[in-house]
Amino acid sequence: GHIKVNELHKYVLQYVYDCSNMIDKELVKTIVHLRSKYKIIIGVISSGFRLNIEKTLACLGLCVDFIEANDFRISQTGHLYYDLHILDNKDIIFTKIIQTMNLKFEDVAYIGDDLNDVKCFKKAGYPIMSLLADHNQGELLKQEPRLFCPRDQNEIARYLEDHIKEDFHEQFRD
Fold first, then answer.
1. How many CB atoms within 10 Å of residue 3?
2. DSSP single-letter state for residue 63
3. Contact 110, 121 (CB under 8 A)
4. How many other C-beta atoms are found inside a 10 Å radius of the C-beta of residue 168?
């Protein structure tokens, strides 16, 4: 079937409303503060829909350095279709971004919510399970040995703040 633009618009608005109500504004404030104070890079790698992510981040007031996500495209015949190019290849995209931005995996926090994130968790210095992971995926993800599994968004904020401060101060001790 084909997707009508007005249906897509309604879907995006509902998604943004739902997501922005699930995400703790205090966590967003902490991330914005850490980004400003420590000049950290923030990005999104998602198998979701780019426009949903962009609109949700804008609604939350969170700027990011990059978004890698799936998108809707218009075919040569003028039909709207979903270009699903990110799914089980997140680790390849993650690696490419780390290399392109000249970063080190051990300096990167990676927040993920499903089994497609496991390879990225293994590479990242600070792997974190998202609170948005569904229960079944979350139970499987908790088996990852280095994965930080927070109980609430305050724990994520404290974890990020503690590790970023620690790394920041270590850089200037060397």
1. 13
2. -
3. yes
4. 14
76 contacts: CB under 8 Å, gap ≥ 6 = none
d(CA 58, CA 15) in angstroms, rounded, equals 13
Question: pTM for the complete prediction?
Answer: 0.83
d(C-alpha 142, C-alpha 151), whole Å = 12
DSSP 108-143: -EEEE-SGGGHHHHHHSSEEEE-TTS-HHHHHHHTT
Nearest-CA neighbor of 121 among 92, 99, 91?
91
Rounded to whole angstroms, the Cα distance separating 143 from 141 reads 5
Q: How far apart are the C-alpha atoms of 36 and 85, rounded to whole Å? A: 32
Strand partners, 83: 71
User: Which residue, 22, 15, 26, is CA-closest to 160?
Assistant: 26
Helix (H, G, I), strand (E, B) or coil at 56: helix
Calpha distance 83→68 (Å, rounded):
12
34-48 pLDDT, tens digit each: 888 888 889 999 998
pLDDT at 30: 85
Please write the tens of the pLDDT for every residue from 104-135: 999 999 999 999 999 999 999 999 999 888 99
Report, as an integer, the average pLDDT of 126-151. Answer: 92
